[in-house]
């Protein structure tokens, strides 16, 4: 399991949306992408990294999300890492959640056994 995690982390980033770049529209990506610019639209992908300078105004749906920047929208993911510099305003629905001290969250959080494979809550 540790080996699989390391391989996933080491996988090459396929696309980078650089700081200063602004995208208006939805993003769909396979593989690992990094966003350091501004996105006004939804972000869908396998592995999405939001750098410290990233600003996203839209919903995020991905297998893995690493957030260091600002997200204004709901996040649905299998795994979400919220770093100390992150600011997320929206509801979180994740199977596996880690939050570093200093991170800012504003919204409902559903994680672990409170989510099903489809992201819906189990009562």
Structural summary, described in words:
There is one protein chain. The chain has 123 residues and is mainly beta. The chain has one domain (12-114). Helix content is 7%, strand content 54%. It has one helix and 13 strands, in the order αβββββββββββββ. It has a seven-stranded parallel beta sheet with strand order 1-3-5-7-9-11-13, with no helix packed on it. Strands 2-4-6-8-10-12 form a six-stranded parallel beta sheet, with no helix packed on it.
> Mean of residue pLDDT?
89
- Ranges with pLDDT <50 over ≥5 residues? 118-123
Integer tally of domains = 1
Given helix and strand content, the structural type is mainly beta
Elements, N to C (H/E): HEEEEEEEEEEEEE
Order of strands in the sheet with most strands: 1-3-5-7-9-11-13
How many helical elements? 1
Radius of gyration, whole Å: 14 Å
Portion in strands = over 45%
Largest sheet: 7 strands, parallel
Separation, N- and C-terminal Cα atoms: 30 Å
Helical proportion, percent range = under 10%
Number of DSSP strand runs: 13
Gross morphology: globular
Descriptive keywords:
13 strands; disordered C terminus; 123 residues; mainly beta; 1 helix
What is this structure, in a nutshell?
The protein is mainly beta and 123 residues long. The chain has one domain. It contains one helix and 13 strands; from the N terminus they run H-E-E-E-E-E-E-E-E-E-E-E-E-E.
Walk me through the topology:
Layout: H1 2-10, E1 13-17, E2 22-24, E3 27-35, E4 38-40, E5 43-50, E6 55-57, E7 60-67, E8 70-72, E9 75-82, E10 87-89, E11 92-99, E12 104-106, E13 109-111
Parallel strand pairs: 1-3, 2-4, 3-5, 4-6, 5-7, 6-8, 7-9, 8-10, 9-11, 10-12, 11-13
């Amino acid at each position: 399991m540790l080996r699989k995690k390391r391989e996933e982390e080491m996988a090459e980033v396929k696309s980078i949306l650089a700081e200063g770049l602004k995208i208006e529209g939805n993003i769909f990506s396979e593989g690992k992408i990094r966003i350091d610019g501004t996105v006004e639209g939804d972000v869908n992908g396998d592995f999405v990294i939001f750098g410290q300078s990233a600003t996203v105004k839209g919903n995020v749906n991905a297998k893995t999300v690493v957030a260091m920047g600002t997200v204004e929208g709901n996040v649905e993911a299998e795994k979400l890492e919220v770093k100390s510099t992150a600011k997320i305003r929206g509801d979180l629905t994740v199977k596996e959640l880690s939050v570093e001290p200093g991170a800012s969250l504003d919204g409902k959080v559903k994680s672990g056994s409170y989510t099903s494979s489809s992201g819906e809550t189990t009562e």
